[in-house]
Fold this sequence. Notes:
This protein has 358 residues and is an alpha/beta fold. It has a domain at 47-196: Metallo-beta-lactamase, Chain A (4-Layer Sandwich). The chain has 11 helices and 13 strands. The chain has helices at 3-11, 86-94, 111-114, 117-123, 135-138, 211-225, 242-264, 269-277, 300-315, 322-325, 349-356; strands at 50-53, 56-59, 66-70, 75-78, 101-105, 128-132, 153-155, 158-161, 168-171, 183-186, 191-193, 231-233, 239-241. A 7-stranded mixed β-sheet has the order 1-2-3-4-5-6-7, with helices on one face. A hairpin with a 6-residue loop joins strand 8 and strand 9. The longest helix has 23 residues, at 242-264. The chain is globular and about 60 Å long. It starts with a helix and ends with a helix.
Amino acid sequence: MNSKMVLVALVAGSLAATASAQQGAGPAPAAPPAGAAPRGGGLPPPEPIQHVTGNVYKIFGGGGNTLVFVQKDGVTLLDTKMPGNGPAILAEVAKITDKPVTTIISTHSHPDHIGSTDYIRSKYPDVRVIMQENALAELASGPFSKPELKPTETYKDHMTVGSGDDRLELYHFGRGHTNADTFVVIPAARLLFMGDVMAWNMAPFLPSGGAEAIADETEKLVSTVRGQVDIVVEGHGYVNDWAGLERLARFDRALVTEARKAYDAHEAPGVAVAALQKNPDFAPLLDTHIKKGLEYGNTPLARAHMNVNVAYAEFAGEPVGFGVANGAPLPATDKHLGSDPKDTAPPTPEMLADEVSK
């Protein structure tokens, strides 16, 4: 697999539908429709800063959402997008405050969430950079291993940053999207920032496997912060709510449960997704449209199929390759049936044109 394509898929926190990432999965996606705005690396550029609530703002595009929390003596940034977006982030922050950036909290180690940390550190050399401790191993090698992207502080399971109305609570509940997922609660705003465990209101991308682990992680999160949160900001895309997070937790668990039933019955993975589709509560998580900012990827329905494929591989004790997690068909083995390539095929030109036209 082409390493550059792997990086693109990882930095997007999702399933880049490219020929390199889906060898044997069908044709590569067509070029963007005529008249469509160019999107560098498949990612839209940062948009103007949006007010979420109180002193909390969101910057969409250029990678993951960047959350901006204006505090008494400075600004905390949650995630810093892809490389090259530092000037745009700081320009948007300057629209709402002249306070310095004092803290960066990264929800995980993927480049679309830490990529501009080095630029911001160059402008604010004393800034604190906080990540869960397992991120150090994830950043130990590769193109994003440079010191300027690594944390200045780490924590294990829970960390409190600041006090009073400036307080943030950081939580880690084990393996999920990565081995170092951080969830951030801003108590004064009754707001939770999710990272890529919830993005575009669909099942999470599982580049390292973990279909059951992600269900455990999400349930632990819900149990821990219940009653503290009204607003849920996703790692990419939307501002959701508590009901939306609870739905995702139910969906993640149901996906593993239905996958296990279908696997034990020696049925195809698609049978599990068909069972999920019978529950009307899960309809928003099984949408068939390309999401804004995810034109390089695929639909929520396709993501559900991918995660069932991951679950099958895990049940069989097989290694979960990046290709299967990213949309390549699950090969049939002596332990299970394979998946239908159509279930995770790249988006059609018509699907992409429909998204771009919105």
